[in-house]
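Table S2 (continued). Query chain:
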Amino acid sequence: MNSGVGTNEACRIVGINYATGYKWRRAAGSRPGPVTQAVSPAPAMPGASAGESSRYLTLADRLVIADLVRLKRSQAEIARELGRPRSTISREIRRNSHPLTGDYRPYAAQDRADARRPRPKTGKIAASPHLRAAVQTLLDDKYSPEQISRRLRRDHPDQPELHVTHETIYQAIYLQARGELRREVASA
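Corresponding output:
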């Protein structure tokens, strides 16, 4: 790439899949295209926390999307430019464009995306006292989480807010157990 070949051609020469090559370039902080110097991590952009996963679009990605949308580039071209799937770009533009004008505004898009990802989230069982009571009653009756999950679906077919997977029950028991509940889990 230092000699001016694109990512696809460099991947072909090295013998790796082009998607892997784009992932490597993204991880190194470089945009697809000719490289004029050795690849090094890009400086952190505002809104992108250190160590943030490349799974999520960063503010820098959103700025590129906004520029290319303004230049009337297709979603496929934008996706190639960023080394992302076209569906990611399509979803980003659909979810985060201004609701009234339809304009894509990168800083507002970053704010919307950040608001949708608050952590840690309250678990479904902890958020619903009725569901928690039902699960606790069945646990007290020595039902397994798998049995509880099936029983709740059978007993409350028209109430999806009372449907919960066994994995969610295990998380509530083991990961979210505090104080007395943790001691009860340990003794059981």
